[in-house]
Design goal:
alpha/beta; Uracil-DNA Glycosylase, subunit E; 2 domains; binds iron/sulfur cluster; Type-4 uracil-DNA glycosylase; 4Fe-4S; uracil DNA N-glycosylase activity; iron; DNA repair
Length: 240
């Protein structure tokens, strides 16, 4: 800490002593009386990063932890972990199941055909990755052969997602696909029973829908997905 700042603190402490000696009728000494011009004066303090409050920094720290995580067997076969990415306080947090082959190769979420399709869905309700969304998965490393994650893998990985949600504080969550919905809603129901309805996770409204890769394979799901997206849009409008 620089000399001037230390001197300011010292003057302030002395004025405090004077105040105690003089009684309550005297004007309370101010910081300015002490010559204290604020913490901005200290270059040393300015250079300390706001580690506890900067959400972008906290998200980056989680991404680094994910990248080096060995908490479950899925780290053994991954090329890249996929922590997720997007804007810091998104309108919608989209949560899928886990990385596929292209995500594993690139380290980025939803970059293949399903991702491009998802972008179109979002565009249809006026949302874009660059302005309104954060996109991630419940599982950060690719399960071999795109199999469903095992319960112990899901449990090991969940704290990363929960920490991300608490930092992101999105207005709403959209889960895509059965696995993400089942894990977050703690249910064995199929997606057909729950899609388009409103639920809540960690105090945030959640709407489940189908996974874009499933809809690419099964065009009959297009109509229900459009209904779900309109339900999400209505929810966002209600939330302002
Ligand atoms: S899937 Fe999650 S818990 Fe498992 S190694 Fe990857 S980051 Fe860690």
């Amino acid at each position: 800490m620089d000399e001037k700042l230390l001197e300011s603190y010292w003057n302030l402490l002395n004025l405090g002593d004077d105040y105690l000696r003089c009684g309550r009728k005297r004007r309370h000494p101010s910081l300015r009386d002490a010559g204290f011009t604020g913490l901005k004066a200290s270059p040393a303090l300015r250079s300390v990063p706001a580690r506890d409050t900067d959400p972008a920094l906290l998200l980056k720290e989680i991404a680094q932890e994910v990248s080096s995580c060995t908490a479950c067997r899925l780290h053994e076969g991954r090329h890249h972990a996929v922590p997720g990415e997007g804007v810091v306080h998104p309108m919608v947090l989209i949560i899928g199941e886990g990385p596929g082959a292209q995500e594993d190769a690139s380290g980025r979420p939803f970059v293949g055909p399903a991702g491009q399709y998802l972008d179109k869905w979002m565009k249809a309700i006026g949302l874009s990755r660059s302005e309104h969304l954060f996109i991630g998965n419940v599982i950060k490393c690719r399960p071999p052969g795109n199999r469903d994650p095992l319960p112990d893998e899901a449990a090991a990985c969940r704290p990363f997602l929960d920490r991300q949600i608490d930092i992101l504080r999105p207005k709403a969550i959209l889960t895509v696909g059965r696995i993400a919905m089942q894990l977050l809603l703690d249910t064995t129901d199929g997606i057909g029973r729950r899609h388009g309805k409103r639920f809540e996770y960690r105090g945030i409204p959640l709407v489940p829908t189908y996974h874009p890769s499933g809809v690419l394979r099964n065009p009959e799901y297009r109509a229900p997905v459009w209904k779900d997206l309109k339900a999400l849009r209505s929810l966002l409008e209600e939330l302002g």
